[in-house]
Amino acid sequence: MTRLVITGGTIIDQRGERRGDVAVEDGRIVEVGVDTTAALTGDRTLDATGCIVSPGFVDLHVHLREPGKEEAETIETGSRAAALGGFTAVVAMPNTDPAQDSVAVVEFVRQQGERAGLCEVLPSGCITVGRNGDHLAPYGELSAAGVHLFTDDGNGVQDAQLMRRALEYAKPLGIVLAQHCEVSSLTKGAVMHEGSCCSRLGLPGWPALAEELMLFRDIELVRLTGVPMHFLHLSTARSVELVRQAKAEGLPVTAEATPHHFTLTDEMLESYDAVYKVNPPLRTSDDIAALKAGLADGTIDAIATDHAPHAPHTKEAPLDQAPPGMLGLETALALAVTELDLPMQRVLALLSWNPAAIAGVADRHGRPLEAGEPANLCVFDPTAEWTVVPANLASKSRNTPYAGRTLRGKVRHTVFAGDAVVEGGVALR
Fold this sequence. Notes:
With 429 residues, the protein is α/β, with parallel strands linked by helices.
């Protein structure tokens, strides 16, 4: 049995910060040497000098495209990008072809993740069959198959009565419904945020109200049913305030924000470059300030990437025809470290143990670094500077909005289920 030792790092988890070495055997942490003069020894060593050793990250929101759009991404390539970004678990969105509304498709996605062996791939299920908003998906069957999070991501559930029924069916199963907040009648033909910038450019605008109306409706449905709900990729200042108020009232709601929504504004679309087109759209600097405040004060529970790869020719289409979405897995940590003025423990809470709890995997991901715990770990250098080069990313696609940008914070090693899957910044599988 191989004993893997991570030496020379600073451990940060939900229990605090301390200097320590970590020994791993058979998929679990077997020893943590804290503030000792003698380093732990093993059969294999990972150098963590100058680095932080933390629980692995969990991404609540990734598009791995398989099945159906393998030209943009596969579960293997997306998993590799995730591991390089420090993620040991990712929730795969269900807008595949066919959609993840049956046990057969869910099992295919899970098994492809197991074959890749780079991180745990957690298939989500659809709220409605085919994500069409007409009939509820078979929650009982999918829950029995291990699905915990259900969403029609890419579409918001427009029918309020159907959404109420979905919450009522979810309650006895203990599953989590995650809403893409968008009133579709307000966003037809829209390509960017509705504001002064879209007026200058003469482009159809996407009002903040389209997000906020559905968010308000569903918060009230949570109040009515008492069933927990998670809100995907919130992007506006009013959305942050609505969630803040709901939490102050004790309602069981959680929310996520993406790195691109707290780092990029709608003015990026002045270039007419579709790499900046995303759903929901990039908003204003005031919205960014509100998102950052929400991330700092606990209103927003998690950073999720909404990693959305697209084949190059699709993003080269005219702005109104190009699909929305950006890559995110390999830049999420660095953007959080570079752009958020937060204590490192708070950044890690947003990336690791908070999303692990929402995803229903807090028994094995986002765990404190102690003997007996599962060894799903990330080792990163918070001071390392690097420049984003699209061709160097692991994804099959290249649609990152951060090309040429210098960021701070780089993953050095990722340990998944006790095995080093990334060493020295290089994926081993």
